[in-house]
Amino acid sequence: MAFTVAHAKVLITGGASGMGRLYAERAIREEAASVTLWDIDPLALDATASALSGYGTVVHTRVVDVSQLGNVRDAARHELDAGRVPDVLINNAGIVRGNDYFWNTDSERDTEPTMRINAIAPMHVTREFLPAMIADNGHQKRILNVASAAGTLSNPRMSVYAASKWALIGWSDSVRLELERSGNHHVKITTFCPSYVSTGMFEGARGPLMTPLLAPDVAVSRAWQAMLSGKPFRMTPWTVTLARGLKGILPTAAWDVVADRVFSVYSTMDDFTGHGSAVAPHTPEAAKEPKA
Question: Catalytic site residue 23?
């Protein structure tokens, strides 16, 4: 039987804005029983909950700093005590630090939070819920880990961000294998690796050759379809898969020339400025169904 979000319990980290909010809208359009949004921004959480109410899905919110294990444990305990074992867990929260060489970055301001939020937080969140998801073996479960194409290719001026996403990819797919080898086939993990998405987080970044910035709704649609089908990986657009393949085939020196002079991968962050404009507000009624 195909997995469906109808009547499911969905939990999204970083769910108050950007792609997190779009995942919530998607769940509501597909008639989820409940959507729980975790975010560090209480005002954005309130605004999003208000906008998403009244569509038949119960919306829960909680202010959670996913970089802090104590916060994650308390919030997860609250969910489990309320009987909300997630049917769908979306590890979406993330931050970007870039546009400088590694030796000029600040370990406390840049390295520590990037690794904690992008790499370690999904591990903590998943660890708190996974035993209960495994135990509920009468129902199909899905975990979507939002990584990045940056976790598949080295790139100047984003070394720590790339490191955080490399770590996330390796961990995510390893847990997928552990679930399969232990016979827990009802829990499926999807690792999503998009190129740059125009949410504002990558303001100023340029896409490589033949790789335009993805619209957030298109990225969410592709991740969502992969998650529903239990696909282990979804890379997008197609040039991400091509670049990964070429990097695996070519000697390093040759790949560096191709990446830099042909695809312009190594200059994509030269004009990066970071958060600029926010994603335009959406409602489940207004959001159009993008093509996957």
Answer: no
